[in-house]
Design a protein that fits this description.
The chain is α+β, with helices and mostly antiparallel strands and 243 residues long. It folds into two domains: 4-135, Thiol Ester Dehydrase, Chain A, CATH 3.10.129; 156-242, Hotdog Thioesterase (Thiol Ester Dehydrase, Chain A), CATH 3.10.129. It is 17% helix and 36% strand. It contains five helices and eleven strands; from the N terminus they run E-H-H-E-E-E-E-E-H-E-H-H-E-E-E-E. Strands 1, 2, 3, 4, 5, 6, 7, 8, 9, 10 and 11 form an eleven-stranded antiparallel sheet that branches. Helix 1 (27-44) runs antiparallel to helix 4. The radius of gyration is 18 Å and the shape is globular. 34% of the residues are buried.
């Protein structure tokens, strides 16, 4: 097992491209830093995408929860400390704690990942493909794990066709594109005047290039979302909690 000082610690600066009109980082940009830290740490430990691709495998995000105390400001340096604390047959849990300048708390994250065969698009047994236990740290997750989000009763719907700019290196829609589509359905004041204290996201199925998707949102004070294809297959669900 790794000692505590060997846990991943990655620094980033909030650039002008990452902020909105409040001069604070957008939720999508912050999510991008989180996933970047996950990728860097996996690479550092020898089980990143570049290693997995040699065996025609890759990581896909299955569930994610992020809890925030604040949004960092433009040019603020943030530090993402990350570690893996669980590995099962089909899922591994990676955690993050985010701090800003002078150690001011920003938030915490729990992510759950699956490994897939890139040709068959089916999940693999993680334990038979990697010596993952060498990277496991005996430290609990900093917040509750992502919750299972039930089917919603939509009050608002929108449509989106998956385009080139939505697709990532795995050949399917980037995890944070779902966030963009959902946030774009909300009033601007929700995103600029309030703080999103927690977001839970469940990724169910891939969204592929050219697919027509239906984006649904309910009317709850803390909105929930569902994205499905024209056949009704659920691709993603999310739940927001506002301060």
């Amino acid at each position: 097992m790794f000692m505590a000082e060997q846990r991943g610690c990655y620094s980033y600066t909030i650039e002008p491209r990452d902020i909105d009109q409040t001069h604070r980082v957008t939720y999508v940009a912050l999510g991008d830093y989180i996933l970047q830290a996950a990728g860097e740490d996996a690479d550092r430990n020898g089980f990143g995408v570049r290693n997995l691709n040699c065996d025609n495998c890759s990581w896909v995000l299955s569930r994610m929860a992020m809890a925030l105390e604040r949004r960092p400001e433009q040019y603020e340096q943030i530090v993402v400390r990350t570690w893996v604390n669980e590995v099962s047959r089909l899922m591994t849990t990676r955690n993050m704690v985010i701090t800003g300048e002078h150690g001011r708390p920003v938030g915490a994250v729990v992510t759950q990942w699956a490994m897939i065969d890139l040709d068959k698009r089916t999940p693999l047994d993680i334990r038979t493909h990697l010596d993952y236990d060498r990277a496991v740290v005996e430290e609990p997750s900093p917040i509750d794990k992502p919750v299972r989000i039930p089917q919603i009763q939509p009050a608002v719907e929108a449509r989106h066709r998956v385009v080139y700019s939505d697709i990532d290196f795995n050949g399917h829609t980037n995890s944070l594109k779902y966030w963009e589509w959902m946030f774009d359905m909300l009033p601007l004041s929700d995103l600029t005047d309030r703080l999103l204290t927690r977001i839970d996201v469940n990724y169910h199925h891939e969204a592929l290039y050219g697919q027509e998707l239906i984006l649904c949102c309910d009317e709850a004070p803390n909105p929930r979302f569902e994205i499905h294809d024209e056949a009704g297959i659920t691709l993603c669900r999310a739940a927001l909690t506002w301060k």
